[in-house]
């Protein structure tokens, strides 16, 4: 059965009485305090309110609470920290609120999206916990509430899938969630399961997943009958022990998130279907558990991929690119598709850009420009890294066509992306090497599972596909 997904918060009804959440910058604070009828200067001075980003004060009134004020911070502070106004969700008392202040459309959009994302709570494993009542926000005039709710819904799904531990999120459980998503939006979903089918048609997916008693599979969803073709491919390693190249225990602690690519493309698919975008969508998720048993693939095994290229397994812990390779080959067999893959693929990407940025790779200048613009519009930072052709020899071991884990330790994110590009064929292709996890609580991003790149792609689609 699919997990019980966290419900979305609702906007406060437009007709309800609500309290004002005044949004004030440090530059505007003196004028705001001297405005007619404002009586809180002494209180705010006494509490040293300076309108720093996310700094909030409740405002007393004659009959109780009169509202609240929150700082929007300096331009530098806003550039360094997304969703600062979302701190209000954890601080304000329950009730209905509206934003007050001279916010640009982009700032209002960021504030509302941050509010929705900050309202997420993962309480599946605390059934006795009574959910705390949270403040509700009215949708400001001029904003597209449907788009904001779709982005939040996709992120909630992604977080729920990643946060669910592997004992409840194996390949079969991921399939159940995948099928539930398809059913909700009228998509068609199938699963290719079974040793004979996989070994013959998707041999590297089979080789990675065959050691687990939880059978590997390839999930396939289709939605939409007209428009350009977009195919999303997400790495679905539901738990990664490292295989025979076993990880140390500390290295396994976050490995329930190794299906973060699958969770993110499913969240993006939800956004696309919920908004009814005019395109034909396909989602492919190779779902496996990389386990240790007598059936496990071995170091220096040579596998023959669906594309026919041979791969020497020089590290069984570099398994994600193997399963993605077969899925990308399958995707590329469909003419005219634009393909995007997402995967928690390399530690090298984290060393390069840290946990907050998702590097992406593409040779297509239109895709590159659209994704960069989409990242800004969706408050979803990404950073382009190159398919550096000069590194191609690094992924060729000599004994086989390709090496899944080149030695030397250099450019690990790039060599992994180059490996995947070999299987994407002559399609328009982009690859995201995501982290899928927030290491510590941040505004609108609680510690735990996190989507990366989905909102950037969503906002990029009109320019990328000509919608």
Automatic annotation (TrEMBL):
Please list the residue ranges annotated as the Cytosol aminopeptidase domain: 315-322
Superkingdom in the source lineage: Bacteria
Identify the PROSITE patterns for this entry.
CYTOSOL_AP (PS00631)
**Which molecular function terms from Gene Ontology are attached?**
aminopeptidase activity
The record, for InterPro entries, names: Leucine_aapep/pepB (IPR011356), Macro_dom-like (IPR043472), Peptidase_M17_C (IPR000819), Peptidase_M17_N_1 (IPR048816)
Q: Which Pfam families match?
A: Peptidase_M17, Peptidase_M17_N_1
- Which CDD domains does the record cross-reference, listed alphabetically? Peptidase_M17 (cd00433)
KW Protease (keyword) present: yes
Q: Which UniProt keywords apply?
A: Aminopeptidase, Hydrolase, Manganese, Protease
The similarity comment for this entry is: Belongs to the peptidase M17 family.
What's the name of the protein? Leucyl aminopeptidase family protein
**Species, as recorded:** Pseudotabrizicola sediminis
Q: Mind giving the lineage of the organism this protein is from? A: Bacteria, Pseudomonadati, Pseudomonadota, Alphaproteobacteria, Rhodobacterales
